[in-house]
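Hallway conversation turned thread

IA: we were arguing at lunch whether anyone had actually written out DoxX family protein end to end. Turns out nobody had. So, for the record, here is the sequence (117 residues) and right after it the C-alpha cells. Reply here if something looks off.
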Amino acid sequence: MNTTGHRAGAGLGLLLAAFYLFGAWGNLFLSPENEAAYARWGYPGWFHYVTAALELLAAILLLRAPTRPYGAGLGACIMTAAALTTLTHAEYDHSIAPLVVLSVAVIVMALCWPRRA
C-alpha cells in the first residue's frame, strides 16, 4: 500500500476508534434521553450494553494496523444498524451521523484491507 493511503487509513482509523470509544461510554452510561430512544425503537432495556460492548470492541480493533479493517467492518455493521433503526422510525435528522460514520468506516476498511502481492 502506498504511504499516503496507509497514513490516511491509520489517521481515519484512530479518529473512528475515538468515536466508537465515546459511543461505548455513552451507551454504557445511558442518558435518560437515549434510554427513552432505545425504548421508543423497541429494543429491550439491556440492549444498550450490547451496543456498548460492540463499539468498544470496534474501537480496540481499530487501534492496531493488522486488525483495523476488521474494526472498521464491525463499526460499519454497528452504524448500518443505527442508520436503519433511525430511518425505519422516520428520525431522519438522527440518521445523518450514523450514515457519515458508516461512510468513514467503509473508507477505512478499503484503505486498510490487506493487499495480495
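OS: looked through it. The chain is about 80% helix and 0% strand.
IA: good, adding that to the notes. The radius of gyration is 15 Å.
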